[in-house]
Amino acid sequence: MCRLLGMMCNDEDLLTCAIAEVAEALKIPASSRPAGTGVAYYQNEEPLLRKRPVPKDSGVEYSQWIENLTSNVLLAHALPAGQQPWKDAQAQPFRFRKWVFGMCGELGGLAEQRETALRRLPEFLARNVQGETEAELMFHLLLNRMFASGTLNDLGVAPETVSRQILECLDDIHSLTRAAPERFVMIVTNGQIMAAACRKLPMHYSHREGIQSCSLHEDSEQQRRLHRRFKGIMLGANLIDPGHEWREVADGSLLTVSHELELRVAQL
């Protein structure tokens, strides 16, 4: 099973504590046959990646995503096992400049239109496509929309602008495949904002206000005070029994998270 998690928060030192609180919802059992994990996070506004294969007959614990990680922003992806062996170039999240992207699901045969899609891209974007996945093609079609509007390098781009570009990207995919993207969840971020969309795959969000219990820090008045001030928003796809901390969004939703941690939900 593919698993996708996006998060933005107000304290880079407490991101791991917040994720530990919802560890059960993020667990991937060995029976789901995860092939590998990928994590994107930001330090000094630069996106960094960790990609690792998962040993055969092993599951994935949340701690494998957040080990020794300090960041206000996280995008994590668990890749299900397939017919092909693990390849770093195929593993998500994908990165281009400040942007990182992850996706679960299917896009209605976009991979079959790979060469046509690449011809629609400017050369500098087409050269960056290393693998053969639909997810990477979708990312670069979205980057192309950003480039066309002059926002590709704009760290201050408005969440609403990225929402519009996602809609334009989905239209581009429709024009390539002659069918609407059928089953997917995608999340994209530049470290300042985050946007996501879903269709026919479950997606949840969790608005975190304070951390009630933490096993990662010593219990002290200072730590309790810092944990009470924590704020964050999590976006998750294909969660297992997410529980009361999470709310499922309607099918066909488009979500944005601002730098000030304001969450908005609209329809595709």
Helices and strands, with pairings:
Elements: E1 3-9, H1 15-21, H2 23-26, E2 34-43, E3 46-53, H3 63-66, E4 73-80, E5 94-96, E6 99-106, H4 114-119, H5 123-126, H6 134-149, H7 159-177, E7 183-189, E8 194-199, E9 203-209, H8 221-228, E10 231-237, E11 247-248, E12 253-257, E13 263-267
Antiparallel strand pairs: 1-4, 1-10, 2-3, 2-4, 5-6, 6-7, 7-8, 8-12, 9-10, 9-11, 12-13
Helix pairs in contact: 6-7
What attributes does this structure have?
268 residues; alpha+beta; Glutamine Phosphoribosylpyrophosphate, subunit 1, domain 1; seven-stranded antiparallel beta sheet; 8 helices
| CATH architect. name | 4-Layer Sandwich
Give the CATH superfamily.
Aminohydrolase, N-terminal nucleophile (Ntn) domain
Name the CATH class: Alpha Beta
Content-based structural category: alpha+beta
Tally of individual domains: 1
Helical proportion, percent range? 25-40%
Rg computed from alpha carbons, rounded to a whole number of angstroms: 18 Å
Name the poorly predicted regions.
none
Overall 3D form:
globular
Tell me the number of helical segments per DSSP (H or I, 4 or more residues long): 8
Strand % is 25-35%
The main sheet orders its strands as 3-2-4-1-10-9-11
> Whole-number average pLDDT?
91
User: What does the largest sheet look like?
Assistant: 7 strands, antiparallel
- DSSP strand count: 13
What is the third-level CATH name, the topology? Glutamine Phosphoribosylpyrophosphate, subunit 1, domain 1
N-to-C SSE string, H for helix and E for strand: EHHEEHEEEHHHHEEEHEEEE
